[in-house]
Amino acid sequence: MSQNKHLTLEDPVEAKRIIKKIDYRLMPVLVLLYTVTFLDRVNIGNARLWNMEKDLHMHGYEYNVAVLVFYVPLILFEIPSNMILNRVVPRYYISGLAMCWGLTITFSGFSKSAGGLIAARVLIGFFEAGMLPGCLFLIGTWYRRHEMVTRVAWLFVSNDIAGIGSGLLGAGLGSLQGTGGYSGWSWIFFIEGAMTCIAAIVSFVFLPAFPEKSTFLRPAEKDWYVRRLRDDDRRGKDEKLRFLGALKAITDWKVICSGWLYLSVTVAAYAISIFQPTILSAFGWSDLKSNLLSAPVRAVSGIFSVSVGIWSDKVKKRAPFVISSFAVAVVGNLLVMLVSPVGVRYFGMYLAAIGTYNCQALVIAWGVNQVVGQTKLVFPQKDTPHYYPGLGTCIAFSASGIIAALVMYFFCAAENKKRDRGDRDHLRDLPEEEQRRLGERHPDFRYTL
């Protein structure tokens, strides 16, 4: 359009058109990538129901170890991975990671022992380490602060798509039991690994670069959009992520509090994702029924998470939504853990999933808003049918998430009041270059509450 050269930051019609253009180009690719990421992350829970432990001669806690070891490299390599992503073309790096773990998933279907499966899970964790932070990093570079929860919520709909697909695929692929001489769990890994390889090729073709280097926007659109991002209190955003900068960032109290929040929600989120079929089977349901009835839980939680994300972005508030969602998760887990009627326990699974997955997008975007995590618990078979230790841990972490949210809210509210009173105005006397490096410490910046 010829009028693009006259774009201004106050043009709502053009803003809406260009943001939609970005949404349509970026978000479908990220949703696809994170769908297969999460599908591959939790498919071990479905594979467990199709003779995996028997075929691999797994005993005691070996299954739980296979689940746990995935998270060790995942945690260790998340920050180094983002330091790499900050310096390379996103589509090369992210699609390469997806191809590597897709092939690993596929070949893990040939495992002959618990050791082979555990080794594959370590490699998958290593390759997947860059995916979630990479997706969030891209969203953070493309959207303003109060546009993020909606996009992060859409990204985490991938969890629900994967949760639904995992149950349905687990039931369908598991029924291939004996085909070609392979058990149902092998077919789950074969097919889902191949799906990831296809997603890697798609991302290589379509994933865009960072805003300043994008090619799908016209020059005038790109210039306008970059100025729009810089106008959103994003001082110093173009700086490269370096080791000392990363070390300084992770010692910031806001980052620590955000990590506490994310740890609180992630424990419960992965417990639901990986062990939901196991918990449902403890209701006395067949393996097939447990797989199938895990799907509607995730569908409902996905609808809620996007709706709450849009609402949160619209009112530009985070704390009320985070605290209330954690509370819903606590109530849901208590119902699953303490009551006897199967119908009430199943309803509790809905509440636990809704509260937990609402929080995922909210706490991530809230942490990014202020400046700019994953763990595991076990559900051994001996704790069936109520799983008091595992569900009790989920409740404890959700409760700690409420505490973390309150800490974040009150400290940030107090700092906003100081800036409103002018207590930080002395920083305006600094040279312009030093002001640019202040980031969220600049007196014009206001924390999201």
UniProtKB/TrEMBL annotation:
Membrane topology classification: Multi-pass membrane protein
GO CC, one annotated term: membrane
GO MF terms held by the record: transmembrane transporter activity
TM helices/strands, residue ranges: 26-44, 64-85, 92-111, 117-140, 152-173, 185-210, 260-285, 321-340, 347-368, 388-411
Stored InterPro entries: MFS, MFS_dom, MFS_trans_sf
SUPFAM superfamilies: MFS general substrate transporter (SSF103473)
PROSITE patterns: MFS (PS50850)
All copies of domain Major facilitator superfamily (MFS) profile, residue ranges: 26-449
Keywords associated with the record: Membrane, Transmembrane, Transmembrane helix, Transport
Matches recorded under Pfam families: MFS_1
Localization: Membrane
PANTHER family: MAJOR FACILITATOR SUPERFAMILY (MFS) PROFILE DOMAIN-CONTAINING PROTEIN-RELATED (PTHR43791:SF46), PERMEASE-RELATED (PTHR43791)
Protein name: MFS general substrate transporter
Organism per entry: Rhizodiscina lignyota
